[in-house]
Amino acid sequence: MTAKITLLQEDINQLAVDALVRCQYSSVSKLTEITLANISRSPDAAWQAQNALQLDVPLNAQSHVSKDTLIAQAYRQAFEFADGADIRSIALNVLGPENCNEVTSASMEHCGLAIRCVSEASIRYNNLRKIILCARDEQEYQYLVSALQSVQLH
């Protein structure tokens, strides 16, 4: 079964999904294992998800591994983990600029990479039913729409 892909320009924390994927750049030397964290939240909390998948992506890629390769590996690892943990719906942001703590748009290339990885995951994993890709702003959303139109979905 193919997972439904949704593009949104919304606060990722407001989405009713099983898990949020939180990828971040860090000073680790290699892609770290994903950890599943139960989000403890009060009844009036802003976020909806019960779980967060945390993955650290190396800030300084090894010379023989490109940043795009590391980012694609991070996406694949997150989707594989979610599928194995029987998570049905996930939401994530585009992994873009290294200064991702700032609210900046990812480039067209980063959005294209995210769309290709999400498209691949939508047909590869049986447990995933819904993958939501959240844009940080209007420009990033337009990049995602353009990238989605150029990818042939199965």
Write the layout of secondary structure elements.
Layout: E1 4-8, E2 19-26, E3 35-38, E4 51-58, H1 67-84, E5 89-93, H2 108-124, E6 130-134, H3 138-150
Parallel strand pairs: 1-6, 2-4, 2-5, 5-6
Antiparallel strand pairs: 3-4
Helix pairs in contact: 1-2, 2-3
InterPro entries: Macro_dom-like
Write structural notes for this entry.
The structure is a single chain. By secondary structure, the protein is of the alpha/beta class. The chain has one domain: Leucine Aminopeptidase, subunit E, domain 1, CATH 3.40.220.10. It is 31% helix and 23% strand. The chain has a 6-stranded mixed sheet with strand order 1-6-5-2-4-3, with helices on one face. Helix 1 runs parallel beside helix 2 and helix 2 crosses helix 3. The longest helix is centred in the middle third of the chain and has 18 residues. The N and C termini lie close together (11 Å). About 3% of the residues have low confidence.
Task: Output the keywords.
154 residues, alpha/beta, Leucine Aminopeptidase, subunit E, domain 1, Macro_dom-like
CATH architecture: 3-Layer(aba) Sandwich
Main CATH class: Alpha Beta
Unreliable stretches (pLDDT < 50, length at least 5) are 99-103
What fraction of the residues are assigned to beta strands by DSSP? 15-25%
Helix content range of the residues, please? Answer: 25-40%
Structure classification: alpha/beta
Global outline: globular
Count of DSSP strands: 6
InterPro entries: Macro_dom-like
